[in-house]
Specification:
Helices cover about 45% and strands about 10% of the residues. It is α/β, with parallel strands linked by helices. The structure holds L-rhamnitol and zinc ion (ZN). Zinc ion binds near residues 189, 230 and 290.
Amino acid sequence: MSQKSDSQIQSAYTLAKESYAALGVDTEAALLRLESIPISLHCWQGDDVGGFEKRIGGLTGGIAVTGNYPGKARNADELRRDLDMAYQLVPGKHRLNLHAIYLEAEGQVERNKIEPAHFSAWVDWAKANGHGLDFNPTCFSHPLAADGFTLSHRDPAIRQFWVEHCIACRRIGAYFGKQLGTPAVTNIWIPDGFKDTPADRQTPRRLLLESLDAIFAEKIDPRFNLDSVEPKLFGLASESYVTGSMEFYVPYAVERKVMLTLDSGHFHPTESIADKIASLMLYLNGLLLHVSRGVRWDSDHVVTLTDDLQAIAREAVRSQALERIHFGLDYFDGSINRIAALAIGARSTLRALLLALLEPFELLSDYEKGGDYSGRLGLQEELKTMPFSAVWNVYCLRKGVPMGMDFIGEIKAYEQSELAGRE
Ligand code: RNT
Ligand code: ZN
């Protein structure tokens, strides 16, 4: 970026700062808060949820990646290089979200036997680059998940296998937390459900309750690991019934004091997780947001700056509980450059957060308290065309990350120098 453009960015920012100040908004304070919010980038966007287990068999569990864009990471070193590239395009310090199948081991290790040692290279890399790590048991893409049930399986031996896997994962999460000095969020999502109308809706849920209690029986210091559970309304092949529904997990999370994960693609298409945050934060210890974008269904498109994303960020900021809300990305698109997919989703999420932090909440609340709903609506509309991008650009400038379309140029260069050589 040339000096001239830098000074243009500065002067645009000075004007924007004044416009926001006129509404009682301190742009510098907003940028300081933005800096303190890490986004957990999901490793699985880098290789279409493949992972590095030495196992043949594709992605199962009712989630799907489409597209065959060249240059997918084939091993952990390539994935780490790709991630390094993505982080360079995202202002601020951010985390990495790992799945259990991203282990590095000599031979094939059964999922109930995975250990911290299998993730030590990830920890070294995270330390060297200042990333926190989060974690996920992988309860899909496995023969013992082939019939669509894991922790709520009727066969106690199969349930036990997945219980052991989840216990192993919590310990790995704690290892991340201890090594890196920041707690890992270990999030449990299971695909369990029925394609067609069930006869017995309760038994699988009772079994899931028992499995979860067994998984969480071991107390782990929250300075190292935080547990979360992720509900869903339906999935591919679980259209009629999902064991781990919202009604199942919300009371569970409140009663057992674990976190809840809200994935933006997991509900009815017109139902936004934004609307749920204010209520849930009155009860929950913590919330993990799986920021995704469903197009007509839970399609896991790359996150963009949609109304829904903006509403989610606003509600998170307004909740006055930002420190208990964790942000993670969750989508998979193999039809475009996977690093671009990561960078675009992370940048969009940060932009939504910045927009939310620039909201004149007090002013809006004053209109509301005074019963002036026309004033409230008028201001909400005015806010949509405030000079937000000037604040975003100055943030990118200060953090030394590309502005505007420059980041796509960097991705293209990396495509030539690194991805082109991959079969
Ligand atoms: C699936 C859930 C879950 C997964 C990841 C890969 O619907 O959203 O979070 O996307 O675990
Ligand atoms: Zn999710």
